[in-house]
Amino acid sequence: MSAPIPAVMYCANHPQRETSLRCNRCEKPICPQCAILTPTGYRCRECVRGQQKTFNTAAWYDYPLALFTAGMISYLGSLITSFIGFFTLIAAPFVGIGVAEAVRFVIHRRRAPGLYTAALIGTIIGCLINVIPALLIFIFAFAARNTTAVNLQGILRLAILALYTILVTTSMYYRLTGRNLRL
Q1: Which pLDDT does position 6 carry in this prediction?
Q2: Would you give the DSSP letter of residue 33?
Q3: Does the reported pTM lie above 0.85?
Q4: Domain-located, residue 4
Q5: For 158-170, what is each residue's pLDDT tens digit?
Q6: Residues 147, 166: one domain?
Q7: Helix (H) and strand (E) counts for the chain?
Q8: What is the extent of the structural domain holding 33?
Q9: Residue 136 contacts by C-beta under 8 Å, 6 or more apart in sequence?
Q10: Same domain, 71 and 138
């Protein structure tokens, strides 16, 4: 027979708080502040933390692979899209999705929060390789008061490259992490 349940339970983390809630995994008494709602019920922070560790499956070599793959594909995408002008803004999210799928393929669908950050950094670096030279040309032409180089076309090119970088990185990150944007 099981032991009778005491009439008053106290939170395991906050001994001064009365509670009637228990972790559905370890049966530890928890207060509403300590409880985390999961699809299967309330759990304590320790059980949730232990469960999340099983989902981080990345190996050490996945980080440089994700960084390199994302950087190379975003760089190649920025080279190709630099020839299509304004339509770059339409192609950029698709390039970001392509980068995410390539990274996912290379790392064999392993996952970890740091892995997504490595892919994000690689994507930004790959895009900035094309942005920085255009920005330097613009800055030096502006400093030298060269009006032929500082024109609407130069400003538009910089704006398109900056928007391309933003669109590629955000679409890659959200595709890779599986997060949904809520507006």
Answers
A1: 57
A2: T
A3: no
A4: no
A5: 888 888 999 999 9
A6: yes
A7: 5, 6
A8: 9-53
A9: none
A10: yes
Per the structure block, which two tokens stand in for 172? 């890659």
CB atoms within 10 A of CB 29: 22
pLDDT digits (tens, 9 = 90+) for 63-119: 999 999 999 999 998 888 777 877 888 889 999 999 999 999 999 888 887 898 999
**Whole-number Å distance between alpha carbons of 84 and 62:** 33
- Tell whether 123 and 80 lie within a shared domain: yes
Kindly report the length of the chain: 183
User: Strand locations in 4-81, DSSP E?
Assistant: 9-10, 18-19, 21-22, 29-30, 36-38, 41-43
β-bridge mates for residue 30, sequence order: 21
Task: Give residue-wise pLDDT tens across range 9-49.
Answer: 889 988 899 898 999 889 999 999 988 888 788 888 888 87
Q: Which residues pair with 43 in a beta bridge?
A: 36
119 in Cβ contact with 67 (< 8 Å): yes
Two tokens at 146? 């060269």
Closest alpha carbon to 119 in 104, 135, 131, 109: 104
Amino acid 42 reads: Y
Residue with structure tokens 């330097």? 136
- For the chain, the domain total comes to 2
Same domain, 45 and 77: no
Q: Per DSSP, which regions of 54-174 are E strands?
A: none
> Do residues 45 and 108 share a domain?
no
